[in-house]
Amino acid sequence: KEGIVFTSACPLGLVAKNIVHGDYEYLNRYLDMFKDNFYLEIHTYPIAQSFNAEGEEPLNMQIINEAKVAIAQERGIPLVYANDAHYAFPHQYPQHDLYLALQTQDTVFTPIEERKMWHPPGALAIMDEEHVREALQYLSESTVDEVIANSTAIAEKINASLPEVRR
Q1: pLDDT at 58
Q2: What gap in Å lies between CA 47 and CA 69, rounded to an integer?
Q3: What is the side-by-side order of every strand in the sheet holding 6-7?
Q4: What pLDDT digit, counting tens, does each position of 116-134 carry?
Q5: Minimal CA–CA distance to 119: which of 98, 138, 137?
Q6: How far apart are CA 144 and CA 79, in angstroms?
Q7: For the segment 9-65, what is each residue's pLDDT rounded down to a tens digit?
Q8: For residue 38, what pLDDT is reported?
Q9: Spatial distance between the Cα atoms of 78 and 80, rounded to a whole number of angstroms
């Protein structure tokens, strides 16, 4: 665990799903293990996007994020934002939509309400700070400032290098 920065994962992860239901077992485990290197993730998915496992009532992103902010403030846990990026630019959405439809054995012609999975156009593109602030506008400005600052702080902690791209 030395040198590892650990975050709470996506809205379907164990920490998020359980925090919303008042269960802190996984959160406590991760805090015990990673201490100051553990961050709660705030996600920039559209609010209307719901997350649930089979048989569970859907939750929207605002409810999940607000629950994480409340527990973070109560327990002094740092927050970080996560932009789940499946493609670089919003105009690449049609290719992503086709790929997702193929993976789930739907087609791009299958009505949204009948698809096994879909994402709103542009929701999974890389976001700049302005778009992050817009996506999280329901949170306080100080909270959004914190998640952005902590994202930068994590990036500065990490010593990683990517291989050179060959053309």
Answers
A1: 66
A2: 15
A3: 6-7, 38-43, 79-82
A4: 888 888 888 999 999 999 9
A5: 98
A6: 9
A7: 888 788 988 888 889 999 999 999 998 899 999 998 876 655 555 556 667 888 889
A8: 94
A9: 7
Q: How far apart are CA 66 and CA 43, in angstroms?
A: 11
Rounded distance, CA 36 to CA 18, Å? 21
- The C-alpha atoms of residue 83 and residue 70 are separated, in whole angstroms, by 20
Q: How far is the C-alpha of 109 from the C-alpha of 27, rounded, in Å?
A: 41
Closest CA to 120 of 56, 61, 57, 42: 61
**How many Å apart are CA 117 and CA 45, to the nearest integer?**
14
> What is the token pair recorded at 80?
């970080």
User: Mapping DSSP to helix (H, G, I), strand (E, B) and coil, where does residue 80 land?
Assistant: strand
Q: Which amino acid is at 5?
A: V
Half-sphere exposure of 144 (CA within 13 A, CB side): 14
Q: How many other CB atoms are there within 10 angstroms of residue 103's CB atom?
A: 10
Contact 136, 42 (CB under 8 A): yes
| 3-class secondary structure, 131 | helix
The predicted model gives 146-160 an average pLDDT of 89
Do the strands 79-82 and 38-43 form a parallel or antiparallel pair, or are they unpaired?
parallel
Three-class DSSP category at 107: coil
